[in-house]
Design brief:
- The protein has 159 residues and is of the alpha+beta class.
- It has one domain.
- The chain is 36% helix and 18% strand.
- The protein has helices at 3-24, 65-68, 79-91, 98-108, 133-140, and strands at 35-37, 44-46, 56-61, 69-77, 111-114, 128-129, 152-153.
- A hairpin with a 6-residue loop joins β1 and β2.
- It is elongated, with a radius of gyration of 18 Å.
- The protein starts with a helix and ends in a 6-residue tail after the last strand.
């Protein structure tokens, strides 16, 4: 293989890993992404899959999930990232083109997070691009909610 081809393959693999990590929420959101939330009421509901644009409630507990669940933060895919994915699927870009790189950047920046409290439900949440410094603050604030230690992630099967 030519060196340029190897470099192109390595870059594509790195971009794929970055996009996967950004969309999976990285280490701050283990298996706790299986809920959706009604923003107006704060009611949680199980979420079997994630569709583009759906709001995920990343849920934790200080003790038993059946007793004291709380939303650590919200996560969704931006409309621009959804459009970028649709564009990529439609166009079938060659991975070496500038257009492909532009679409990949739009997707990588497409995961949004927001702070949310079930105690004060509101539809007026402020979404922050996951690549911004404020996003890390939002995604780690839940750790302080448990005086007895580290919160544990909750999934619907936990109760």
């Amino acid at each position: 293989m030519k060196p340029k081809a190897i470099v192109a393959i390595v870059i594509v693999l790195i971009l794929a890993v970055v996009v996967f990590m950004l969309n999976s929420g990285g280490p701050t959101a283990p298996a706790a992404k299986s809920y959706t939330v009604n923003l107006a009421t704060g009611a949680l509901a199980p979420q079997s899959g994630v569709e583009g644009g759906d709001i995920q409630a990343v849920v934790y507990s200080c003790s038993a999930c059946a007793a004291d669940k709380f939303v650590g933060f919200l996560r969704k895919t931006s409309d621009d990232a959804i459009a970028a994915a649709e564009e990529m699927n439609k166009q079938g870009y060659d991975t070496g083109t500038p257009e492909y790189k532009s679409v990949m950047e739009r997707q990588a920046k497409g995961t949004m997070v927001a702070a949310y409290s079930m105690d004060s439900p509101t539809e007026d949440v402020t979404w922050v691009d996951m690549t911004q410094p404020e996003a890390q603050t939002i995604m780690t604030a839940y750790i302080k909610k448990c005086s007895s230690g580290q919160p544990r992630p909750c999934i619907p099967s936990d109760g």
